[in-house]
Every structure is written in C-alpha cells, then in structure tokens.
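ok here's the first one, seq then struct tokens
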Amino acid sequence: MSKIVAIINAKVFDGENVIDAKNVTVKDGKILNVGGPIPEGAEIINAKGCTLMPALIDAHSHPNMETLKQNMHFGITTTFQMQGYFSEAQMLELKENTGIAESLKCFFAITAPNGHPSELLPPAVLAKQKEMMAKTGIKVNKDVSTPEEAVKVVNERVQQGADYIKIMVEDGTIFGYPGTPDVSDEVIEATCAESHRLGKMTVAHAMTIEAYERAITGGIDGLMHLFIDKPHTPEIIATIAKSGAFVCPTIIAGASIIGDSDASDFVKDPRVSSKLNQDWIDSLSKHIATYPQGKTEYLLKTVKALHDAGVDILAGADASQPAIGGMAHGASLHHELQLLVKAGLTPIEALRTATSIPARRFGLHERGRILNGARADLLLVEGDPTTNIADTLSIKRVWRQGVEFKFD
C-alpha cells in the first residue's frame, strides 16, 4: 500500500495566494487533495505555526550535482541551468534522484566567437572545460557568426535535450572588457526563429539597455539579468511589457557586479551560514565589482517599474562557483526574494516569482502550485513568509515528488 502523508494545521500558500485550506495530503508523489478529508492510516504531520508552500524554483543557476543537493537544503527542488553541462548519466539522475534538485537545462549558450563569457575565463580554464566536454560527449559548439550557424547550434542543443535555448547578448562593457565580440542582430533573430520552430523558448543574457532592445527586437521570450548601465526609462519599460518577455532580474548578481551587495550581511543569518561550507560563506563576502559606476538603487526601481507594468518577474540567484563573489547556491535565492520585497513587491508577490510564475512561463504545469494532482514538491517553513519574507529561511521540511529530503 502506498504511503499517504497528511500535513495538517498549516497556513497554505498555494503558489498564488493564501487559501482557506489547512490540510494537504500527499500520495505517490502527487498532491492527493487540498483541504479534503484525511485518509485513514495517513501519516500525520502537525504543521501548526508553519506555512506550507510549493518548493522553490531558481530560474537562473549554474549548478553541478553537488550544488543541486545544496539547493535542497534551502527548499529549492527545481533550478534552471543557464550555462553548463550534464552528462547523459547525470541527466538521468536529475530525473530520478529525489535527494537533489531537478535542473532544466540549456547547456552552453550561443555566443560570438571569443564572446562572453570567454573574456572572463583564463586560458587554462577554457582548456580544462574543452577537455571535460570531450570526455562527457557533450557538444561544445557555441561560437556563432552567421544565422546559418545559429540554426545548426540550436538543432544541436535540442538533440542534446535542451529544455530552452540561451543566447549571450553582451559586449563586455559591464565586465571591464568593452569591445568583447557580440552576436549580430541577424544571429539573435535566427536563434529565436529556429528555437520557436522547434518548440523551444529562448532566453537572453542581457545587461545593458541596448542589449535588452536588441534581444526583444530579435524575438526573445525571456531576459536574464537587468540592465545596469542606465536607470530605466518609461520607453524601455513599455517596450519590455509590450514584447511579452519575462525578466529574471538577478538583483543580487547585479549588485555584486556594481560592488555594493549586502550579501556579507545576509550570510550572518545562522539559517544561511549553518548550511554552507566556508568556501560559500567566503564567496558571499566578495563582490565581482567590475562596474562600480552602476547603482543598485536603479536595479530596485527598475524591478518595481517592470512589475507595475505587468511584466512577469522570475526569481533567480545566478550562483555558479565560490570564486565568483556574491552568490551561493540555495541561499541566494532567499536573498533575491528579500531584495524583491525591498524593491517594492509584497511578500506574496515575491513568493510567486519563485513558484507559480517560473512554472507557468517554462511550462512546468505540475509544479509551483499546491493543487489537486500537482507534483508534491513542497516546502514547510516555520512562521509566515507571506507577511515576513525572511521566514522562507526557517525551513522545517522539504519534499521532492512526495519524498521527504533528509537533511545532513
């Protein structure tokens, strides 16, 4: 007989709103019922004083198998990989291992020859990357100069199993390498057109207003990061809203690039530091700091303007490796939620950016919501993050596909 778990007496945030139901029952990896009768013989979890919500989704990450487990410690059961690779064996494990977060993937983003992020990587790192790719069998074609090459690489990504296609629209200005080779408008357009023909969404790395405008003109579905070179204007906000594209602002990444992130204060919270090794703790005390002329204040105001204009906002942390300061897997998504509230979103609006909105925009209709029949990816926290966003860190229990995660 399948195990049935009933979580009772909880405040329930269903991914959109707080609902009247206090009980949620789980069976066979799915939500059996919300607010219905508790089946006889169910294991009872009394969640009085706690909030039950969908497990979190990190819409911008650069994970590996180890950091996918770290995500689970922070209540994140799904991530969107935005640059990286997985072997075939790892991709199978992503589906089957409920002890790690599942990761959607784009593999390597399309970029110009010698384009971003190669300007940031030492030659030894690039050589090691190519060697590792050769061992895993992952195709590394990513340098694109023509629309024809873009079409070829998009098809390669789809054959690899990419869930969406990413393109770098980056001239290096904000990273201290102005003049970095960038893709042409024709390449952006061809990438979007071929991806859409094959039923795949497109997202763009874009961190200047010009990059935003070029990506939108080319037909992009989602914009990763915020522009940090200028404050927003009514015109650019209207352009984004009219396009229907979503924005994953990664405020914390922008603040690190500017050099004034408050991550060093965030990591002092024992709910954060107790779950991180020293390398990640140290990382949160560093900054990328390549664009000090920017202002985090502008990022916060831009997020609020986008939200007020009806643009879908997705929460993403942009964590990759400890050497890149300001972000840590798992922890920094909670930091991003706090920054979204600081920008002017309500706690409930911020919670939607890491639950129902990314699930809807990426077609994960069984996730990001607490509904009858939905996948039982759940997060139980002490307190009430719908009124105090920092309570997302007071994690009591995490389930992926109905299987409870065992904390180390």
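and now the second one, same deal
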Amino acid sequence: MKHLVILGAGTAGTIMVNKLAPVLDSDEWQITIVDQHETHYYQPGLLFIPFGIYTKKDVIKPKRDFFPTGVEVVFSGIELIEPGKNQVQLSDGKVLPYDYLIIATGSRINPGETEGLQGDGWHRNIFDFYTIEGACGLAHFLKYWEGGRMVLNIVEMPIKCPVAPLEFVFLADWWFTEQGIRDKVEIEFVTPLPGAFTKPRASKLFGDFLDKKNIKLTPDFSTGSVDAENNKIISWDEREVPYDLLVTIPTNMGDELIARSGLGDELNFIPTDKHTLQSKAHENIFVIGDATDLPSSKAGSVAHFQADILFENLLSAMEGRPLRAKYDGHANCYIESGFGKGILIDFNYDTEPLPGKFPLPGIGPFSLLEETKMNHYGKMMFRWMYWNLLLKGSELPIESQMLMAGKRV
C-alpha cells in the first residue's frame, strides 16, 4: 500500500482530497488528511461579521462534512515533517509514512511579531478581522462606537486576500453612513505598499475610490511598533499615526510546523516551484495555497486554480511522467465597494488586472475593473458556491489559466 498524506484541511487541502479520492485506486493508495482543528471557516465571510452582514454561524461548518468516504481523517497537531525519512510525526507520537506529501497548512496572523500590538489595547480598541475572535470582537465594538479616528493598518506583506483591507474600509464607509455617523468618523488606510494595491492599474483605481470616499491613504508606512497607551502606530522611520480604533492586519506567517521542520523561509512559507507547485527541495512534496512562497495572491481563488494544476502534476509524478501542467499565477477577486456594489479583478503573474467582461467575452455578466451591482451579487453568491461546489472539488466555469478573451488591453 502506498501513502498520500495531506497536511491541512482548509480550503486547499479539502479541495485536493476531494479531487484525488475518486481517481486513486483505494487498493493501491491510502489517502490520509491531517488537521488539528475540526471546524472549517469560510474566511471571506469574516470580513462581513463586523458590519452585521454575516454572523458566526454563517461562516463555520464541521470539516468532516466535506471529506469523501474512504479517506483516513486524523484530527491532531503535527509535530514534525521529516523529508529524509518520508514521514510525519504527529503531536501524539503517531508516525505517518508517505510516498507523496501535500502541504496545505496555510498561513495565519502573528500579532506577536509587532512590538506592542498585543498589549493592553488588543481586542479592546485594537482588532483584527482575520480571525473569528477578532471579527466578532470588532462587531461588538462597532455596535456601540460613536465615532473617532479609525485606522486600518497592514503591518507587512504578504497577507491573505490582499484586497480584504480595501474591502473593509469601503464597507466601513458604507456602514458608518448607514448608522448616520460617517461625518463623525475619520478613516485612514495605512499600508507598506506605495499605493492602494500591489498592481499599478488596480492600485490607481482603488486609490481613486479611497479619495472619492474621503478615506485617507498613507502609503510606504512600515509599522515598527504600536503604542497602545497613547493610541498610535509608529513606523520604523519614526512616523506616527494616531488612532481611536485600530483595525490591524498583522504579519502573516506560515505554520510553525514549517519552521520546526526546516522547510520554510523567514516567514515560514515553503520555497515552491511557481509553475509546477513542487517543493524546490523535495521531489515527492507538493505545496498549495497560502503555505507556498509564490508571488501570487494568498486567496481562495488561487487555491482553487492551483488545485487543478497540482492534481495533474501529482498524478504525473505518481506515474513517473514529466510535470507538464503549469500554474500561471491566476487570481480572481470580487471586491465589495459598499452600497450594494462591487468590483472584480482577474490577473496572473504577468498580466495585471484589465477592464473587460467576465467570464464570457463581451457578455459578462461581470465587469472587470468596474463598480457594478452584479459584481456585488457575485461576491454574495460565492458563499453558496464555496460550501457546495468549491470545497468538494467540483468543476467550476472558470479556467485555471487566466484567459485574455473579454479583456481590453
């Protein structure tokens, strides 16, 4: 019996186990998926909790609901990956041998990397929305807040879902307007990037939106510390930004397991071939989703597109064939802009977001780099698609390779 082990049962790991279980011969292959948590979070939904659009119940389901039959499921911490021995040590001492290993351990916020961030202000007037605790705590805070200076700060890149901070301030502008206190709230978007986003054309568009919504943009701000006592963030070059409410996107890092195993970079992301998704150090290890060090977005759509490529390449590797499938960095993101509208961007390693129609050229129904109601509906429909199609590895009507059809250069 040969062994395929998948570490991590988030978006990427769950998609992969559902794609592989039906095609691998159960008499020849034992598939084991390992995760320390039994609850699955719909991470794009965390953004909506602070504004009362979703509740906690809307974004959580048991992970067991999404595993196919015949797969060994292990809920346990993972102590160590030992590539030299082709085995994984679990926290309870159990050892899992593998012939092939898929690492899908994701990324998480690490506020402890920034001096003062987890001090007296943490979850008092400093909140994240990348965890269920942070999102729910922020929802409670906003319910009773009467206004002041709200600062959203991205500590450093890369982060999960790079558009989410922009969505947050756009939704905050809408929500404070709905509450009748927008004139009592100053919103400032503080980022280490030179503009509002990583890609120049989209960065200009989003910068214009920030300006239109009276949201101050402070670029090139590298956060060094937080002075929670005096309510201010301080950059490494000693610039200061005061706040009454700080919404933080802390340093994002890969799992500590990766550091213990000696497989990652300084942020615990794994050096990965950006086209084949094979580990650069070990031929029988593949990496997917947020766990990689790829220069692509850390987002659910990326995990979905990568899964198609990894599926083909893993089967090729198992059969001793060349790895011919190539991931092109494709990312596709719906961005809530507030007031029942949204924006859609579609890009890859080499092509920045362009205007046009998506997914059908000239028809849509979604518009790229435009603010429309239909794009908002696309965002809201995605939760159903996520739970019912995406996690189950179903084929979706979007190619894993980015298409130029329908785009205007």
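notes on #2: The longest strand covers residues 331-338. Residues 2-106+255-318 form a domain with the FAD/NAD(P)-binding domain fold (CATH 3.50.50.60).
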